[in-house]
Design a protein that fits this description.
By secondary structure, the protein is an alpha+beta fold. The chain has a single domain, classed as Immunoglobulin-like (Sandwich), CATH 2.60.40. The protein is built from five helices and ten strands; from the N terminus they run αβαβαββββββββαα. The strands form three sheets. A five-stranded mixed β-sheet has the order 2-10-9-4-6. The chain has a three-stranded antiparallel β-sheet with strand order 1-3-7. A two-stranded antiparallel sheet has the order 5-8.
Length: 191
């Protein structure tokens, strides 16, 4: 009888330890993507004169069901439709959280997927968020160029949400034009 009770206590103990490392998507957050509802990426390279980092950077906070941060959680950013995107050679799309359960990304990529599951953020094999994935490099050529500017102009003139609604406002506006202008000419790092 004592052995059975001991086994139950040990099982509950280890289940509690395992549960501490399982993310609860409802407790996790991704700032500022949760407010925007869309992930914006851009090709980037070392030595860029203007960095769009403030507009494309996001921080993932991973928490368990007890609302405790999960340090050392393995986090991945995965494009669900890779044919729609180009990932730059210098992309960093995986990493582990710090002691507070945080990790910051700035994804170097181009392309556009307007489906709500265009990109997913996974922590310890649990999908915690999915988003549309958009970029000033909407044609996924690896650079923000004239073709992208032409497409941007079409969306801007109609106010369409499309691939250039970087702030998630529901339309392509002057704020989106500002970010697009900062990104024009950026290309994937040749290294």
């Amino acid at each position: 009888m004592r052995t059975a009770v001991l086994l139950v206590v040990v099982g509950v103990f280890f289940a509690g330890i395992a549960g501490a490392t399982v993310p609860d998507a409802s407790k996790c957050s991704i700032t500022p993507l949760d407010a925007r509802g869309v992930m914006t990426t851009t090709p980037q390279y070392r030595g860029a004169v203007v960095s769009p980092q403030a507009a494309t950077e996001f921080t993932v906070n991973v928490r368990n069901a007890a609302d405790q941060p999960i340090p050392g959680a393995f986090v991945e950013v995965i494009f669900n439709y890779p044919g729609n995107h180009i990932e730059c050679g210098n992309i960093v799309s995986t990493g582990t959280t710090d002691g507070d359960g945080n990790i910051t990304f700035n994804i170097a990529a181009g392309g556009c997927t307007l489906l709500g599951d265009g990109v997913k953020v996974v922590a310890n094999t649990v999908t915690i968020r999915t988003y549309q994935a958009i970029s000033p490099d909407a044609d996924a050529s690896g650079s923000v160029s004239l073709g992208d500017f032409t497409a941007f102009g079409a969306d801007f003139s109609t106010g369409a949400a499309g691939c250039f609604d970087f702030d998630g406002s529901g339309g392509t506006t002057l704020g989106d034009f500002t970010l697009f202008g900062q990104c024009f000419g950026l290309a994937c790092d040749p290294y």
